[in-house]
Amino acid sequence: xxxxxxxxxxxxxxxxxxxxxxxxxxxxxxxxxxxxxxxxxxxxxxxxxxxxxxxxxxxxxxxxxxxxxxxxxxxxxxxxxxxxxxxxxxxxxxxxxxxxxxxxxxxxxxxxxxxxxxxxxxxxxxxxxxxxxxxxxxxxxxxxxxxxxxxxxxxxxxxxxxxxxxxxxxxxxxxxxxxxxxxxxxxxxxxxxxxxxxxxxxxxxxxxxxxxxxxxxxxxxxxxxxxxxxxxxxxxxxxxxxxxxxxxxxxxxxxxxxxxxxxxxxxxxxxxxxxxxxxxxxxxxxxxxxxxxxxxxxxxxxxxxxxxxxxxxxxxxxxxxxxxxxxxxxxxxxxxxxxxxxxxxxxxxxxxxxxxxxxxxxxxxxxxxxxxxxxxxxxxxxxxxxxxxxxxxxxxxxxxxxx
Length: 403
Description:
Layout: H1 2-8, E1 13-19, E2 23-30, E3 38-44, H2 47-61, E4 68-73, H3 80-88, E5 91-95, H4 111-123, H5 135-167, H6 180-187, H7 194-227, H8 232-238, H9 246-256, H10 265-271, E6 276-278, E7 287-290, H11 296-306, H12 317-322, H13 328-350, H14 355-376
Parallel strand pairs: 1-4, 4-5
Antiparallel strand pairs: 1-2, 2-3, 6-7
C-alpha cells in the first residue's frame, strides 16, 4: 500500500462527477494505470460535501490539488459547484452532454457508470470544457430571462381573456387590442351574468399585475446596466444598432458572455444554431433547416431584431440618441449592418423565398456584425479568482455562495 501511494505522488488523478441535486457519484483514474477508472463512492449534493470528499481523496491517493483534474456534465445545478472548485484551486471543467461520446450499444445507464465514463474520457483527453460565465453575467442573464417569462405570462393572460370574451360573443371593433381605448372598453363591459363579470374582473386584475411586473423588471434592467461594469460597454454599443434596445442588448450580452472564444463569426453562428443542417454523402448533397442546436434565447432575439432591417437604411431620432457617445467605429459598423442586411433582404425576397427563411438568413449575418462589434471594443483584463474561503464550522457552508 505504501508503494502504491508513493507511486501516486507524482501522478495525475482524474476524477469524474455525475452530479445530481442531492447526490454526486465519484470515479477516480490515475494517468499511470491502463485499467478502467474505479468508482470511489458518492457524497451529498452540496459544495461542502464535495469539498470534504475531495479532501479524503487527496489523502487516500497522496496527491495535491494541482495534481487533480475534475470534470462533470452540465445540468440544472448551474455553475455554483465549478466556481467553488476553481476558487479552491482544483482544475475543473464542465462538459456539454451532447459532446460526450456514447457507444451505440450502450443500454445500461447508472450514476456509477456515468462517473466512470467521465473519468475515463477525461484521462484520454477526449473532453472539452464549455464556457463558464462570470457570476455577475449569469445573474444578469437570469434577470433577462425573468423579464422574458413575465412577458410570456402576460401574453398568455391576454390570450385567455380574449378567448373568454369570444365565448361570450363579445368582439372589439377597434383597430388595435390592448391600447388605452381597448382597456377602457373592457372595463366598461357588462356581461349577462354577475359570475361572468367577476371572471372578467379577475382577468383584468391579472393583466394589470402582469403589466406592472414587466415594467418593474425592465426598470431593474436599466438599473443593473448602470452597475454592470463588464458588460455595459458592449450593451451600450449594441444599442447603437437598429432593432436593439436595452432588453435585447442585455439579453445577448448576458447569454453570450465573452465572445473571445469564437475565433470566427461562423463559430458564433454555429453556436446559436443558425447554420444550415446538412446530410451529404457521395455525389449527393442534401441541406435542410437550421440546426437550432444552440442558445435559443439569443437566436430568438436575433430573429426578432433582424426584422427591423427590412426597412430602408435610416438613422432615426431614437437610434441617433442611442448612438450618442459611441465611437466612430461603432457607428460605421451599425451603418454597414443596415445597408448589408437590407440589401440581403431585397435580394432574397426577389427570389420568392419564404419570408421566415429570409429573416433567419438576415439574423445569421447579423451575428457577424455583432461579433465584429465585440472585437472592436477594448476588452477588460481577466481578473484572477479570489482566494478560497476557509470553512470553520460544520454547519456553515460559505461554499454555497458563488465565487
